Amino acid sequence: MTTSLPALYLLLLCSIIGHAQLPGKAPGTAINNLVHIPGYKTGEYGAIPQYTRSGKGKRTLILIPGWGFDASVFRDFMEANKNNYTMYAITIPGYGETMAPPMPDTSISYGEQSWNKGVMEGLIRLIEKEKIQKPVIVGHFTQGTQLALRMAIDHPDKVSGVIILGGVAKFISVLQGQVQDFPLKTMIQYVDKYTAPVWFRPMNKKDFDAGNYLSTIYSMDSVKGADLWKQSAAVPLPVMVRYICEFFASDIKPEVEKIKCPVLVLRAMFNEQLLKAPVNNYVRPQFIDTWTDLPAKNPLIKIRDIQEAASFVWKDKPAETYREIKIFLSELQK
Questions:
Q1: Check whether domain 5-23+44-332 has CATH 3.40.350.10, yes or no
Q2: How high is the pLDDT of residue 305?
Q3: What pLDDT sits at residue 5?
Q4: Are 162 and 136 in contact (CB under 8 A)?
Q5: What is the mean pLDDT of residues 20-41?
Q6: What are the residues whose beta carbons fall under 8 Å from the beta carbon of 149, sequence distance 6 or more?
Q7: Angle at which helices 141-154 and 114-129 cross, to 10°
Q8: Can you give the pLDDT at residue 22?
Q9: CA gap 241, 108 in Å, rounded
Q10: Where are the domains of the chain?
Q11: Model pTM?
């Protein structure tokens, strides 16, 4: 049975908290995933190296793909909505055919969000370059969600709204069947001291791929899910490790009260068969339950559930997804 990447991470947490012995063979020590692979040509920090523009609508959307994906995943989204919106689909540096920035020094905490701050700088530069007036930021999955919400928190003058597509609000742990919502300070300590240097640093590509998100987390359609999994798996391992460690060391939830613009969360509800599988015991806490308390903290946040859909909600349920977006944006104009 394949174990998901979050489940592998939880095994490490168990070893830290309960001094449990990790099963299986320990990773080798010759690999260092905390630096770029030899010969890797880095890109510019604070830039969006690749983006696609499409559509001619009055409302402008900036589409941010999730962890491991490039702008091409929004091709169908943009084609379906080209007569409704003007859209910019970006590629986060290091994904697809783009180059990631230089690696931060290993003494810098992952809680500093070094690379994600660079993406934020790139988004601001893109908005200014294209003279975009208060776009709606659309964030997908892990990382895209955090970037979209962070834009609303840190740059309220630049953003008119946020749409979340099948994302997670934060990383949630499930230890021995019990959901554990660790505070940000604790998560940062784990990532800095154990997750990055002990777990991910020496991990080989085969083990990482075997422990990555299952394709069914991306799409309920097996063919679509497999294709999406391949795109994510093609990203250089140090790039994936850097970004996932920054995700583990983040928590947007304590700051949602600062959001001053409307937010639509299109929550991926998957199906009962997937949710009941032991390997997926983290899915409900992360993708579903982690959003439940946010509307009470900030009434500008609205949740709409997309049934029978995985994290790529617009690929599994396009009609429902586009309808909810259309309603949200029409109300935004009032």
A1: no
A2: 98
A3: 53
A4: yes
A5: 70
A6: 139, 162, 164, 252, 256, 259, 263
A7: 70
A8: 30
A9: 15
A10: 5-23+44-332
A11: 0.93
